[in-house]
């Protein structure tokens, strides 16, 4: 050493609550470099507590995005490969812009697919083991209204649910189906090989978590039926539950800035994107999904 004391920089993360029900902004973290174990632990704890974490100004590459995501579990690869980046199958591209940088026409399948996110859902509920969470990087974001993402706290919504409504939900299972969702949203039918990878699955409407807590588990656009119910009766109940769970007091709305990275818990929140004019507004998002853990409770 040449006489100068070696400087050790310890980065402290900051946590700012964004809504009384869920959501927190995390500062003091650079997602493009490996996380120190204590920082990873702090993020994990905040994620469990707030459900949705916001990291501002994170101009990460897809490889850095994947690396950060892997700190929190195994990553999912989507059933349809055409909408994932060929070199990084864990990255799911949500975009209305083609590879030449032009806005895609309204009828383009990717644009139709994007519009599905304008309805409340939880990601990958159509899997036997739905994803634990997702991490979304806003590369080009809508300016001037629309494109915000809303998140609802389904744990709080269940806790405060009127007893008469809760009694009706107790013991019910919902059938979630990727193929059914597609058939109801003007998307081309899946080929048999793709469909075989994602057969309909059933999940209880009241989800019990490993820590003993409970939450509502609904994903309206994928819920083909409540098991044993007609489609009409199913829609009535799902609409009623969605109305209850998406009251203002349970919902955080995120207004995107370029290079925001959002990380959310899919096990006790659901989300939707606010509609925007996709014929004039560019929106390019890259997402990873953290695989869930099989829990039979
Ligand atoms: Fe989603």
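^ structure tokens above, recovered residues below v
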């Amino acid at each position: 050493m040449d006489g100068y004391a070696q400087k050790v920089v310890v980065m402290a993360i900051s946590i700012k609550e964004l809504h009384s029900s869920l959501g927190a902004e995390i500062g003091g973290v650079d997602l493009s470099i490996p996380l120190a174990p204590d920082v990873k632990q702090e993020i994990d704890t905040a994620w469990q507590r707030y459900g949705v974490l916001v990291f501002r100004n994170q101009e990460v590459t897809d490889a850095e995005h994947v690396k950060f995501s892997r700190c929190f579990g195994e990553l999912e690869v989507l059933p349809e490969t055409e909408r994932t980046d060929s070199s990084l199958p864990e990255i799911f591209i949500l975009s209305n812009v083609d590879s030449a940088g032009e806005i895609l026409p309204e009828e383009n399948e990717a644009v139709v697919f994007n519009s599905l996110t304008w309805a409340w859902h939880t990601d990958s509920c159509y899997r036997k083991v739905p994803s634990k969470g997702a991490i979304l990087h806003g590369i080009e974001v809508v300016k001037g209204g629309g494109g915000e993402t809303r998140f609802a706290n389904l744990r709080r919504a269940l806790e405060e649910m009127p007893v008469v409504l809760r009694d009706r939900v107790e013991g019910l299972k919902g059938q979630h189906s990727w193929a059914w969702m597609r058939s109801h949203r003007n998307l081309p039918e899946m080929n048999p090989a793709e469909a075989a990878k994602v057969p309909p699955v059933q999940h209880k409407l009241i989800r019990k978590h490993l820590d003993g807590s409970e939450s509502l588990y609904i994903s309206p656009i994928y819920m083909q039926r409540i098991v044993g119910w007609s489609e009409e009766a199913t829609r009535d109940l799902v609409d009623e539950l969605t109305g209850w769970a998406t009251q203002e007091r349970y919902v955080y709305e995120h207004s995107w800035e370029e290079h925001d990275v959002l990380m959310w818990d899919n096990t006790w929140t659901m989300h939707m994107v606010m509609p925007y004019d996709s014929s004039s507004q560019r929106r390019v998002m890259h997402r990873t999904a953290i695989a869930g853990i099989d829990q039979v409770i």
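Residues 23 and 200 are 31 Å apart (CA to CA).
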